[in-house]
Design a protein that fits this description.
29% helix, single chain, 3 domains, alpha+beta
Length: 224
């Protein structure tokens, strides 16, 4: 019985690769059809049909090297972007890392695409400044292009799981930002919350400026 018909890819171009010949190899007892390709840089390599047609193989490897070289990145120079990528992997994949329990230990994972540093760099781009570091927008979410950003320490502090968030008028922000808008000391807001106030009461109830201590300026609203 004849096997599935193999498409003729000779002469076709896939990224930097041009198919110049076809070969059949035996791999683990099975005969597989593969393609000899010449890269634009002059290197020849053998590629699987699936790699060409899916777009996962576009060069002999020089494309990824060129992406890294263009931005001055690589394993040896230990750029900030590379270190962020390596530390991300350590937190999620290495149980011997100190803070593994907060990441991989509780199920935080890395998308398959980011197993390659070149893909991580292409998705995230260069770090905007020395004050930025890799941050997950949803702290319970995974490391994916949609859930990650370069953020300042100020932004990350407001994005920790310890922050209390409050929504008003369809806008969700942390208590520190709301307290600043309402003109109330954040220490007073936290003191009110500890005594059983709701977030709305803690933020919107005016403070009687009689005592200097925030815990003595609670002025709990009188129930109607």
């Amino acid at each position: 019985m004849a096997g599935p018909r193999v498409p003729d890819l000779i002469g076709h171009v896939f990224g930097r690769l041009t198919v110049i010949a076809s070969i059949v190899v035996t791999h683990r007892g099975y005969r597989e059809h593969r393609w000899v390709c010449r890269c634009a840089c002059g290197v020849e390599r053998v590629v699987l049909t699936g790699g060409l047609r899916s777009g996962s193989t576009k060069s002999c490897g020089c494309l990824k090297r060129d992406v890294l070289r263009k931005h001055g990145h690589g394993v040896l120079d230990r750029s900030p972007e590379y270190q962020a990528w390596a530390h991300m992997r350590g937190r999620c994949l290495n149980p011997r890392i100190k803070n593994f329990a907060r990441y991989g230990g509780r199920g935080i994972s890395i998308c398959e695409r980011w197993n390659e540093f070149a893909n991580f760099l292409a998705d995230m781009g260069p770090r905007p400044s020395r004050g930025h570091s890799l941050d997950r927008i949803n702290n319970d979410g995974h490391y994916t292009p949609e859930n990650c950003r370069w953020a300042t320490r100020h932004q990350q502090t407001r994005n920790t799981s310890r922050n209390v968030m409050w929504t008003q008028g369809g806008v969700t922000r942390c208590l520190a930002d709301w307290a600043r808008d309402f003109g109330i000391n954040i220490a007073t807001v936290h003191a009110r919350l500890r005594t059983g106030w709701t977030v709305e009461e803690a933020l919107t109830t005016p403070v009687l400026h009689v005592e200097s201590s925030p815990t003595k300026n609670l002025q709990h609203p009188v129930a109607s």
